[in-house]
Design a protein that fits this description.
Blueprint: H1 2-24, H2 26-40, H3 49-89, H4 92-116, E1 127-133, H5 137-157, E2 163-169, E3 175-182, H6 187-191, E4 196-203, E5 212-223, E6 238-243, E7 259-264, E8 269-273, H7 279-310, E9 320-325, E10 331-334, E11 340-341, H8 344-348, H9 353-365
Parallel strand pairs: 4-9
Antiparallel strand pairs: 1-3, 1-5, 2-3, 4-5, 6-7, 7-8, 9-10, 10-11
Helix pairs in contact: 1-3, 1-4, 2-3, 3-4
């Protein structure tokens, strides 16, 4: 019976993996790797740092994809040999080891399958994420800060290096808003499924009566701008203000007017940055975020026009999408995918992989 179960699971896993390999196209990956290796070997590569970083990142991804394919192929063969040897020798310990390895392979291949779905126009880019508190008073601003920490922890677990560009602190607890930049490849493809309205239900720590409170926060995710994007900004359309960076309670972070706020007057988009030490660096970072938001605005307008022409009346992606319930029971549930878990503490500590994988699959099916 165990033999039949193992063989069926192995056959199914091999079939899924074969479909993934077909999409990834190892032959094309090897060609891309060879071309990129030649490009990064060119003298003067680092004279253009952004181009150099783009090329080296692409080379690293191509190599990693090839290594993953080869590793999974080898592990599948090894697990099959180990299981049948264990069966022949009556070695239950080795049989259990083979079953555990197959379980690990099933998870790894499921993650690899999700990566093949990240083929949207901007999916392979970095991301700019903005979190804003909504209705709910101190609970909402506290919730927004909880989400900022959650996405920071998720990014760190992915091996990314998130940078918080700007934070607007609330008068009471938490934050009114925060903007975080993640420059690593495919950050947008993954984090974009987190865009929308998030809802928290809990016994409020800010209510003397200890009543249950519902609060909301909004998450916006836009792709990071690249040099090749055609987003032209007329300097005359910008209103640029400088001010001193500040932290919780208005405490001074530095003594110069280094923080920058840019208002794009035709659209009303406002961005600010106070993370860097110099005014010039903050202005450059703020302009990068502004361009990213204008790029996303352009994309949304194009999508809206396509949907209007097609007569599409589906609800937009940005509507309420997830509930975090801490009382009277414990649950986090995605309202689009129906994916749910009963460990809110782990979710708030950045355990979002299951939600993001489910979201990517849902998006492709919608």
């Amino acid at each position: 019976m165990a033999d039949m179960d193992f063989n069926q699971r192995l056959a199914s896993t091999r079939e899924t993996f074969a479909a993934i390999v077909d999409v990834l196209n190892p032959e094309k990956l090897r060609q891309e790797r060879d071309e990129l290796e030649q490009a990064v070997a060119e003298p003067g590569l680092w004279d253009d740092q952004q181009r150099a970083q783009t090329l080296t990142s692409k080379l690293s991804r191509a190599k990693q994809a090839l290594e993953t394919i080869e590793s999974v192929e080898s592990r599948l063969s090894d697990a099959e040999v180990l299981f049948h040897m264990a069966q022949e020798e009556g070695d239950s310990s080795s049989e259990g080891e083979a079953l555990r390895e197959l379980g690990d392979l099933e998870k790894d291949i499921a993650e690899l399958e999700v990566q093949t779905l990240l083929n949207g126009e901007y999916d392979e880019r970095g991301a700019v994420m903005t979190i804003r508190s909504g209705a709910g008073g101190d609970d909402a601003t506290d919730f927004a800060e909880m989400l900022l920490r959650m996405y920071t922890r998720f990014s760190e677990k992915q091996g990314w290096k998130p940078t918080v560009l700007d934070t607007s602190y609330a008068e009471g607890a938490g934050i009114k808003s925060a903007t975080m930049e993640v420059t690593e490849p495919f950050a947008f493809g993954q984090l974009s499924v987190e865009a929308g309205t998030h809802r928290l239900v809990r016994m409020s720590p800010f209510n003397a009566a200890g009543k249950r409170q519902t609060s909301f926060a909004a998450v916006e995710v836009v792709p990071l701008i690249e040099n090749t994007d055609e987003i032209e900004i007329d300097e005359n359309d910008l209103k640029i203000d400088v001010y001193r960076s500040s932290g919780p309670g208005g405490q001074s972070v530095n003594t110069t007017d280094s923080a920058v706020r840019i208002t794009h007057q035709p659209t009303g988009i406002v961005v600010s940055c106070q993370n860097e030490k110099s005014q010039l660096q903050n202005k450059q970072a703020a302009m990068r975020v502004l361009q990213s938001r204008l790029l996303e605005l352009k994309r949304r307008e194009e999508e809206a026009k396509k949907k209007e022409l097609a007569g599409d009346v589906k609800a937009s992606w940005g509507e309420q999408m997830r509930s975090y319930v801490l009382a009277p029971y414990q649950m986090v549930k995605d309202l689009r995918t129906e994916y749910e878990v009963n460990n809110p503490d782990e979710v708030f500590d950045g355990d979002l992989a299951g939600f993001i994988q489910a979201g990517i699959r849902w998006r492709k099916q919608s």
